[in-house]
Structure formats: C-alpha cells, structure tokens
Write a structure and sequence with these properties.
It contains five helices and seven strands. The protein is of the alpha+beta class.
Length: about 160
C-alpha cells in the first residue's frame, strides 16, 4: 500500500468523488452529486481517500457520518445535518474503489485505516449496510452481520453490519 497516500478529502476533490461514486454504484444506489457535495462540505474529516502517489488519482474512499444513533437508517444517506462530530458511532455510507485498483487489498486497507482513525477519536463502532454478496467481504474486515436492515435504499434488501472499535 506504499503507492497510496491516505488522508481526509479536500473540497476541490468533490467532483472526483462524485464521479467515482457513479462508477462504483448503480444509479439507484449511488449517492447523488448534491448529497455527496453536502456531505463533503459538512464533514470532510469523515472521508478517508486513497490517492495514488504516482498519478495523483483518487483510487478510492470511505465515507460516513458520526452520530449517537446505533441503528442505520436511510436518512443518513440524504441528510448531512445528522452528523454529530462527537457521535459515538459512524454510519458508513460508501466504500468506493475504482475498478483498476480492485483486487489489491485497497478496500481492506482503507477500512483498516478508517477503523484506527475513528477509534482514536473515541468512536465505539462502525455500522454499514451491504448487499448479501458483500457480507463475507465485510466479515473478513471485522464486521458482524446483524441481519436484515430496516434500510430500503435503492429498493434493495440490505444486511446491517457492525464493527466494534
């Protein structure tokens, strides 16, 4: 992972993050440009980006919002004002890795660095939703499957997963 720099997102990278989100998720699941930019403006410190050192390209990122709530709800995708900088839990809203950087362990490294960073901030857990096909991937990253989520984002059935920090 020496070929990447891991850091918070910069405002001037918002368009690139939106483009990556549109590549990584189908239209009914992807965060809209409006909501992604609102999230970046409100909580840039809740984004961890991986920048390829040689090309300067954003290879991927993980983002979420801190809250004292402990159950995922779809409103977190839509309302950046739900962000509580002192929140005990982080609702993860998207793990994005460009296709050409997949299969190299980058997603796992982004998640691991995010866990370390958020634990250092005093967070108690990370919570996410994922489709059935991704459950085992997140289990390998230290998440526990809590069962089917109340989320109906994109008219899909999601698993709610949690990683205790």
């Amino acid at each position: 992972m020496d070929q990447f720099i891991f850091r918070d997102i910069l405002w001037e990278e918002a368009d690139e993050a939106v483009r990556i989100e549109q590549i990584c998720f189908p239209p009914h699941e992807a965060c809209s440009e409006k909501h992604m930019k609102e999230r970046i403006a409100k909580a840039p410190e809740m984004f961890l980006v991986a920048i390829h050192k040689e090309s300067g390209e954003m290879a991927g990122f993980l983002n979420g919002l801190a809250t004292d709530e402990s159950v995922f709800r779809d409103e977190f995708f839509l309302d950046a004002n739900l962000y509580d900088p002192k929140g005990a839990h982080v609702m993860l809203l998207g793990l994005d890795v460009l296709p050409k950087y997949r299969g190299q362990g980058l997603a796992k490294e982004i998640v691991n660095q995010y866990k370390v960073r958020e634990k250092a901030k005093g967070r108690k857990s990370l919570i996410l939703t994922c489709l059935d096909a991704k459950v085992s991937m997140y289990e390998r990253m230290g998440f526990t499957d809590l069962g089917i989520s109340g989320s109906t984002w994109g008219n899909e059935e999601w698993h709610e997963m949690q990683c205790i920090l």
